[in-house]
Amino acid sequence: TLRLICTTTAVQRKNVGASGPEKYTEAFIKKQIEEFNLGKRHLANMMGEDPETFTQEDIDRAIAYLFPSGLFDKRARPLMKHPTEVFPEQRKIQWGEDGRPFHFLFYTGKQSYYSLMHETYEKFLNVQKHQDQLTTQDLPVQKEKRNLAGSRWLTKIELEEMLLEQVSDDDYSRFIQLLQKLVALPCADIEEKYIQKFSKELPVQLQKVVIEPLQHDERGVAFSTGEGKRKTARATAVVYDNGTGKITVNGIDILHYFPVLQDREQLLFPFQFLGRIGIHDMVCTVSGGGRSAQAGAIRLASAKALRSFVTEKEVEFMRQAGLLTVDPRVKERKKPGQEGSRRKFTWKKR
Amino acid sequence: MAAPSAAGLGRRLRAWLPRIMPVRWSRYNPSYLEPEVKKESHQKPLEELTEEQREQMELKAVRPIKAAPPSLSSSVFSDPMISKFTNMMMKSGNKVLARSLMSQTLEAIKRKQLEKYHKAPENEKETIECNPYVIFHQALKNCQPIIGLSNITKGGKTYQVPVPLTDNRKCFLAMKWLITECRENKHRRTLMPEKLSQELLLAFNNEGPVIKRKHVLHKMAEANRAYAHFRWW
Predict the structure, then answer these.
(1) Rounded to two decimals, what is the model's pTM?
(2) A9 touches chain B (CB under 8 A)
(3) How close A109 gets to chain B, by Cα (Å)?
(4) Residue B182 burial by CB count (10 A; 0-12/13-18/19+): exposed, middle or buried?
(5) Ranges of each domain in chain A
(6) Using an 8 Å Cβ cutoff, are A117 and A182 in contact?
(7) pLDDT (tens digit, 0 to 9) for every residue of chain A, 350 residues total?
(8) B99 touches chain A (CB under 8 A)
(9) What is the ipTM of this complex?
(10) CB-based contact (8 Å) between B55 and chain A?
(11) Which CATH class is domain A215-321?
(12) Which numeric CATH code is attached to B78-230?
């Protein structure tokens, strides 16, 4: 069984739109939209603000003010949003008054999926024909490699939302395989627009974190702080410039606080990686966790603090060395019916 | 549409098409890549890299990267093979003891080799290897089997079929044999570091019980050559 622990919000969101035939008529939705707009103007008047420039954030604030709720689940609190966000987009009725369906693939059960596959394959054949034409005319075939690292394909949920019907895992993987085959052809640039409908840009750099500037204390020495955590340990580190390489933890020298060599190696890891061992001085506080967790927490805190002392390229190298990521591994819970998190009870035949 | 969180962004679904449901899972999102700890690989200039490595670099720039584990460090003293061996020697999570045993073993090897070095005549001094890490790596390489046996049941009978091994498996078998050899076939009074250093030095010179075990395995595979066609992968 698959236990999705590392889920994204995209996976957790259920696609309600594809779950069944139409539940709300068009007239009903139109009426809801009119009522929403009217209600928005009333609300603006009540709050004493201008009805024309009343945004969704203002609506949320007004509702939270007028109907304060102590409920824990955010989805249970009073809500006032545009009807298109509340009532998900659904497929309109697929057949006419005489009972005949509109789409020629209706009786396959997955009409939008199969029509999409047909379209994509048509484009594929087009590209092949174009390629053949170029070879018969003896023109050079373009071989520009598309940058695959900067984009990703649509997720299954996004595809379901686009097609407004359920897509199974197998179908989804077949569709992605077809797209990949299409992209792999040399003359695929012709169908670039079509392919872009199904791919999304990945943020080019994962350096979304802002590097704080250096601070200076009373004596004029530059320093910077960083926070780190690992399992249950939390640490804060202050790295000073112009030091001799002394490291103090909770007021105690590291030789006394961490008698084990492995922990001291971990503390010095960021400094050794950047080649700045004798230059910086460090004072840290740490609490919680065990011996190794505290060492890991201080390592993360010192790496974060060192970001302000170092060029952007070196920050990127540190990130690729795994120094700046929070380690998400925690102790796995014990399950009922088992002795520990994985160990089962001794099996007895009788 | 709700914006996906930073941790879930950029999932290259080529790696996560859920055809086979995995039983082992990890706390990391499947899009996270392994960290590269060595300093030299980051400081190489662009021209020296091949096409593949350039693509890898671009991919690394966009995807998130896992945190480096506590046994890995960029210092010259951390060696992935030695850490793996230490972990295999460890009992009940006592890494401190395992690590100290390992360092005592390396020290013992160095002492023995230095003794030999100082006793040897001038012309042989260059052939004696004193670096314990080199001895360890060479001994492991000498112990690695080339071909392994696997149990395949056909027609009610189980046959031992010769099967090619992956590099990881070879390494693992060599380390396992060394450790079991040192734990079982020793005198009650000898300590682990001493016995291990003896075994490593013997393996370095292609002698000793571990090498014998490897040869036995090779002979069995050669003897069962007839069943090799039972393998279907």
Answers:
(1) 0.76
(2) yes
(3) 22
(4) buried
(5) 26-86, 106-201, 215-321
(6) no
(7) 444 455 445 445 565 555 556 667 788 889 999 999 999 999 999 889 888 888 899 899 999 999 999 999 988 999 888 988 888 777 777 788 888 888 899 898 888 999 999 999 999 999 999 888 888 887 766 666 666 667 788 888 888 888 888 889 999 999 999 998 888 888 777 788 888 888 887 766 666 777 777 888 888 888 899 999 999 999 999 998 888 888 999 999 999 999 999 999 999 999 999 888 888 889 999 999 999 999 999 999 999 999 888 888 888 888 888 898 999 999 999 999 999 999 999 999 98
(8) yes
(9) 0.81
(10) yes
(11) alpha beta
(12) 1.10.455.10
